[in-house]
Write a structure and sequence with these properties.
Blueprint (H helix, E strand, L loop, with lengths): L9 E6 L6 E6 L6 H4 L12 E7 L2 H10 L3
Length: about 70
């Protein structure tokens, strides 16, 4: 019996330490958002970045693009 591991879509909106440009990053290879939140070395997003929003699910891609005016 083969077990498949559910991996949700995780959407992160962040901005770097310098500048106001907001960026979106979508992760599909993680089980939960904990590694992103606990990442202090900058493996997933830059270490000095400020996370503005984080959501689990594909619907958040369009919601956050409208909310933060990202094209």
């Amino acid at each position: 019996m083969v077990r498949t591991i559910f991996r949700p879509t995780i959407v992160v909106i962040y901005k770097r330490k310098w500048g106001n440009q907001k960026r979106i990053k979508v992760f599909t290879n993680l089980r939960n958002p904990d590694p992103i939140l606990e990442d202090y070395k900058g493996k997933f997003i830059p270490a000095t970045a400020e996370i503005l929003d984080i959501g689990v699910g594909e619907d958040f891609i369009e919601i956050y693009k409208k909310k933060h005016k990202i094209s």
